[in-house]
Amino acid sequence: MLFTGTVPGVEGHVGYLAGRYRNGALSDVWTDVSRCAERTFTAWVAGCSCGWYGTGRPLTTVGQFAARRQWATEHLAGVLADATGVVTTSATG
Ligand SMILES: [Zn+2]
Question: What are the domain boundaries of the chain?
């Protein structure tokens, strides 16, 4: 399941919904997690085509949205900041 709505300036970053398998591995961008059997996964995780992964979210619809939101707000925001040199959040450290 791809996260649609690419943002100008972050081409090359395609977000998707990954599932964490019971052995801890994460599904890849080609896996349509919506077609996998129930109990295949232990958590939803936002992934990006660049190799970034978010943190585990509950296996619920809310968890799916939370994963997508993490990709957009944490990952894409950071990519955009790097690309434009504009820091939108307060710097740490
Ligand atoms: Zn990315």
Answer: 15-84
